[in-house]
Amino acid sequence: MGIADFDYVFLHQEVKDMRVVEQVQKSLPQNPIKLIQDVSEAMAFVNQSSERQMIQSGKRILLLNNHKGNVIKYCPAKSPGCYKCCNLHTINLMSNCIFNCAYCILQNVLNSPLMQVHCNLDEIFSELDQYDLSLNEPVRICTGEIADSLALEPILHQAKFLVEYFSSKKHLFLELKTKSDQIESLLSVNPQGKTIVSFSINPEHIVKTIEFHTASLDARLNAARKLIDHGYKVAFNLDPVIRYEQWEEHYDGLFQELSHRFKPSEIAFVHVGLLRHTAGLDGLARQRFPGLRLFDEEFVMGPDRKLRYPKPVRESMYEFLYSRLRSWHKSLPFYACTEKADHYQKFFDWVPGNDMDLNRHVLSRMV
């Protein structure tokens, strides 16, 4: 699916802040925007003959509406107290994703298949203003947990509005998380050191066989270089790291590629996470992607009700990954997503006392 391949574009009558709407009108002149009073009017155009059809047809329907409820939330990966978390906060400016990553948890957790974009930026910025004033330490605010932060940027220019807004905040840092290379709008604004663009990366073998419709690894890394040269902070998400027959060889090649293209000092941090999934995702993914071998490995249930590789397997994988990161540069900030205190004791010789401890480590190159 290309960025303009929407079958329908709907606008909920509740929307009053028209900045994003006007940008969509300019970007998609071939798609007349239909005004609706209720989301059910858009859902009527979703093919609901099967779960597979519903998910895919929903991605082709763009709904412009308002965000309801609290704007600022903890990252959905924030887990029971046994796991160490990095204090990432989120604002959900979009819901759903035009990409088709076979492992994507959104397939079986979202309550609507529509590609939704929330347009009430004034209300969102007002809540962020108040939150910024309440803080005495830096906090990352990410838009890429239930959507890709930049996949629709040529249509929306939403991220550009965010970069401009965050550039003047005292304690808030914006994190844009993406598997795309849609960065052109960002090159027209100065982030003032307050925006991190974090690229989710995997070996090209994974990109081609599992991360369908996303930008190639080369395109993502080229985009990262352009952003660095323009004054942005860049991070990398090695998540999910996937175990398969040639995984060590392929990830070793990925680290070599990073070391050839970037100086360690240019990277804000690296986030590391191994493949994990919710119960039921494997069956749905196999239905959507016939022949998928991704979930053929052994998985065990964790305290957060997510399935992950058994601990001995995870530790072996982390040992390999961390050795490559430390070979790149011994002081490069990196951390593991949803691992316990004993993990940090074993691999870092340090245990974060709380979320803010790990947050300070992650942002050590930003402040």
What labels would you give this structure?
globular, pyruvate-formate lyase- activating enzyme, 8-stranded mixed beta sheet, 34% helix, alpha/beta
Explained architecture:
It is a single chain. The protein has helices at residues 19-27, 39-43, 51-58, 121-134, 153-156, 158-166, 204-209, 217-229, 247-261, 281-288, 311-328, 341-348, 355-362; strands at residues 8-12, 33-36, 61-65, 72-74, 83-84, 89-91, 94-95, 100-101, 115-118, 139-142, 172-178, 195-200, 211-212, 233-241, 267-274, 276-278, 300-301, 306-308, 334-336, 339-340. With 367 residues, it is of the alpha/beta class. The chain has one domain: pyruvate-formate lyase- activating enzyme (Alpha-Beta Horseshoe). The strands form five sheets. It has an eight-stranded mixed beta sheet, with helices on both faces. The protein has a five-stranded mixed beta sheet with strand order 2-1-3-9-7. It has a three-stranded antiparallel beta sheet with strand order 16-18-17, with no helix packed on it. Strand 1, helix 1 and strand 2 (33-36) form a beta-alpha-beta unit. Helix 9 (247-261) runs parallel beside helix 11. The protein is globular and about 55 Å long. The two termini are 39 Å apart.
